[in-house]
């Protein structure tokens, strides 16, 4: 493939018992379905392998409860677990989870045997209905039981991470962001580039987003606060909505949006704004938008490549020098392209060596 980003999409495999919430997670994160619409999703009876047009190569392997995927005659576990990536196991925290833990245990053993490089990520899911105290107790209990069982078979060294998730808030996106970041070898470089960009442009916080899923793949090293993250990820939705409604011709909008306060809030997008985000064309690279918030801050979005966009929060005084910011941003964009280009070249070299 010619595309440097396409070649290195991190792979995610999602598993769990029936009704644990796998399809809902997929619909909400990758198809923008509203959380309450998932109530009417039909239960799946087959393995769903879906490729998603995004920086992330996300595959849902939905193993309905009645199918035994350890039956080697039916499922080839080398195919299932063979590739580099993360295995996400979803546990319904509102239900009795003993059976799910058994399944998790078997899955980890089986998968680890095939592929020592897989990372295991346990989503303790549907926690929206639990009290804070109960959430913590549940996580502690699940974590304890899982590690005890692995220790019993001498495999306590397999690293498992646990996340409390729900499709009714941003926790599912936050968990995905953490999972994805572990799979990006260039992460330290990306963070460094974001730090430099922020320091030289008076930016308070910057996120590099996978536009299609709103998962952030990197951010600068200042602490992430939930509100900033939410407003930045909401911006992507606003820009996509506006560009879907108004297309590419209108370049200035005045919106009155409850998220962003009063009618002082302004959104500007350039002629080529986000209309192509959902598609695979390259034009989204040039997307640029600006939202002036009524608290003296500015939200600024710039397309980086066909999957990624940068969303920054900065004081509007600092935005006065936006020529400098634009220049710094062009340097940043070039650096990102170089990072992925290098990665592609080394992967090609590896392939050539293997073929010899
Ligand atoms: P799957 O069989 O694993 O794909 O499970 P589904 O995605 O079909 O989900 C089963 C049910 O769980 C659906 O009714 C969803 O609405 C519900 N569900 C999924 N995620 C959540 C969540 O985060 N919170 C709550 N309360 N319900 C959820």
TrEMBL record:
Name any one Pfam family assigned in the record: Gtr1_RagA
The keyword Nucleotide-binding is annotated on this UniProt entry: yes
GTP-binding among keywords = yes
The Gene Ontology CC terms held by the record are:
endomembrane system; fungal-type vacuole membrane; Gtr1-Gtr2 GTPase complex; nucleus
Q: Which InterPro entries match?
A: Gtr1_RagA, P-loop_NTPase, RagC/D
A Gene Ontology annotation in the biological process aspect, one of them, is: negative regulation of autophagy
Q: Which domain of life is it from?
A: Eukaryota
Q: What is its main location?
A: membrane
Instruction: Please list the GO terms describing molecular function.
Output: GTP binding; GTPase activity
Catalysed reaction, written as an equation? GTP + H2O = GDP + phosphate + H(+)
Kindly state which keywords UniProt assigns to this record, in alphabetical order: GTP-binding, Hydrolase, Membrane, Nucleotide-binding
Q: Where is it localised?
A: Endomembrane system
The UniProt similarity line reads:
Belongs to the GTR/RAG GTP-binding protein family.
Task: Say what the protein does.
Answer: GTPase involved in activation of the TORC1 signaling pathway, which promotes growth and represses autophagy in nutrient-rich conditions.
Question: How does this chain assemble?
Answer: Component of the GSE complex.
Q: Which protein, by its recorded name, is this?
A: GTP-binding protein
Source species of the chain: Rhizophagus clarus
């Amino acid at each position: 493939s010619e595309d440097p980003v396409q070649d290195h999409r991190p792979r995610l495999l999602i598993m769990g018992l029936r009704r644990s919430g796998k399809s809902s997670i997929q619909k909400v994160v990758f198809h923008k379905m509203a959380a309450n619409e998932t109530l009417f999703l039909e239960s799946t009876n087959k393995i769903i392998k879906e490729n998603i047009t995004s920086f992330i190569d996300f595959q849902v392997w939905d193993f309905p409860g009645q199918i035994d995927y350890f039956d080697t005659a039916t499922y080839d576990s080398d195919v299932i677990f063979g590739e580099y990536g993360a295995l996400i196991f979803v546990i319904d925290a509102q239900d009795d989870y003993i059976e799910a833990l058994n399944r998790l245990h078997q899955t980890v053993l089986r998968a680890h045997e095939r592929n020592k490089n897989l990372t295991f990520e346990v989503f303790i899911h549907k926690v929206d209905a639990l009290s804070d105290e109960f959430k913590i107790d549940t996580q502690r209990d699940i974590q304890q039981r899982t590690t005890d069982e692995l220790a019993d078979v001498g495999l306590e060294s397999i690293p498992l991470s646990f996340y409390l998730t729900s499709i009714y808030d941003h926790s599912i996106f936050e968990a995905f962001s953490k999972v994805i970041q572990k799979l990006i070898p260039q992460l330290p470089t990306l963070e460094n580039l974001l730090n430099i960009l922020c320091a030289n442009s008076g930016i308070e916080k910057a996120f590099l987003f996978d536009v299609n899923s709103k998962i952030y793949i990197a951010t600068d090293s200042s602490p992430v606060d939930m509100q900033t993250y939410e407003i930045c990820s909401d911006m992507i939705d606003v820009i996509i909505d506006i560009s879907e409604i108004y297309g590419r011709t209108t370049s200035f909008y005045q919106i009155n949006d409850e998220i962003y306060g009063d009618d002082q809030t302004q959104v500007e997008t350039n002629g080529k704004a986000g209309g192509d985000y959902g598609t695979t064309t390259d034009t989204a690279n040039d997307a640029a938008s600006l939202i002036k918030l009524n608290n003296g801050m500015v939200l600024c979005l710039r397309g980086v490549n066909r999957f990624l966009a940068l969303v920054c929060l900065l004081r509007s005084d600092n935005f006065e020098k936006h020529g400098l910011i634009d220049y710094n941003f062009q340097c940043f964009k070039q650096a990102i392209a170089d990072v992925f280009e290098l990665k592609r070249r080394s992967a090609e070299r590896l392939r050539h060596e293997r073929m010899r």
